[in-house]
Structures are given as structure tokens and as C-alpha cells.
Amino acid sequence: MEIPNLPASLVEAQIQSSPRTAYYIPDFITPSEETVLLQKINAAPLPTWRHLSHRRLQTYPSPLTQQNTLLASPLPTWLSRPIVPRLLSLPVSPETPSSGNLTSDSDARQSNRNVFITTPHHAPNHVLVNEYLPGSGIFPHEDGAAYAPIVATVSLGSHTVLDIYAKKEGGGGEREPEPRWRILQERRSLLITTGGLYGEYLHGIEGVVWDEKLKACCNWELVGDRENFEHGRAERGTRVSLTFRDVLKVKSLGKAFRLGGHV
Hints:
With 263 residues, this protein is α+β, with helices and mostly antiparallel strands. It is 14% helix and 26% strand. The chain is built from six helices and 15 strands. Strand 2 (50-51) and strand 3 (56-60) form a beta hairpin. The N and C termini lie far apart (44 Å). Mean pLDDT is 88; it is low at 98-104 and 106-111.
């Protein structure tokens, strides 16, 4: 059985040249786990997909309501395992005891010092599955106030480059014209962004087929397969991203019905 070689703590995965609130782990899942995840995603009925202008997505366990509330329901087992227990097993610092090779979400939460310990539900409860074809991307944006300020993203099928933009002084939602940092996300990697990177910056993906100047990415020293990018450029394939977050407001279906559906 394949087992990823994970760091002892997130300190080892900290991206040093970013604001140090981002962590990068290559090969967070195995090739066989990636294959199973892609098979499950691609086997979903067509109505499961929501088609947007440059990508399509699935939402688990369900989309948020207009009031940014999640109706309580567990994540599908095929999507949560092994990713969520593995994610929650990573201690933030070496001084934090790791929970080891955990087999369930509840076991993982007992480690008590993972990156989600500060969120309301102490674990991800919502996943966006985004499919990006070569040449497609997403405009720089913020994730908004519906979620706790921690995002864990697993990449399947292909690499991409995440651009981080600083906001211009004076507010107004404008950003600097060039990204402050660029983060290379290999296939099967995990990227965690927290704190200031969540609320004080915008993030996006440029719609290109070829990514250039990859050796200048701020996480280059943490990249697992640098030989694959030794020429400093790489062609994108079809990428599927799994974005794990903790929705702040959660209500049970029973309570929602008792309130007449106003959630």
C-alpha cells in the first residue's frame, strides 16, 4: 500500500518567501488515490456539474444558501478519506504531537493542534470541485466571509500556478497589476493558505496553456519534482482542484424546515 511521505509538521512545509501563512506539500496523495478521486468525479451525473464561463464545478455536500449557510450533511466518504484525516493529522509545529496514521475524521480531530483547530467545526465541512481545461483560469478574487480563513487545496491531473495579488492602498477593491507571489501547485499536492493571505490579498489563476518562469515561484524550494519543471516552463493539462473549507454557518435540515426554509 502506497503511503505519502508527509512532513513531521507544517513548519517544514511553510513557504518562506510568502507572508509565512501558506504551506505546500508535494505528493500529499498517491497516484492511485488520485486515480480513484478522478474516477469518482468524472462518474458524477451531468446535472451535478455547474457550468461557468471558463470552468465547471461540483459542490459537496451541497451549495450554500443565499444567506451563506450550509445545510448540515457529511462529506461523501470517497471525497473526505483519506484527505481529511491526513490533513488533520498534520501538526502545526514540531512541539505539537502528531496523531499519526489516522483512519477517521473523528480520530484526526483528537490531535487537537492541526491547522483547522481554530475554525468553528475543527475540520473542513465543504468542498468545491473545480475543473480547469488548459488555457482556463479564474479572475483574482477573495473567498468571502462565508468561510473560516483557512483553505486547503488538493490538485489532481495537472499542475497550475496560483497568483497572489496585493490590494491597492485606499481600498475600493483594486489590486496591484502584477502578482506579489506565484505558487506552483503540482498534481497531487496540497496547498494551505491561512491568515493574511486569506483576507488581505486576492488570488487567481491566469488563463494560459503554458506556465513560464516557474523557478521564480515562491515555493520552488518545496517543489517535489523539480526535474519536471527544470526548463522553467510547463504545459498545463486538465486540472481538477479540491478546495476544502469550513463554512461558518451550519444548520440542520430539520431546523431549516421548522423555520419555514429561511436559512
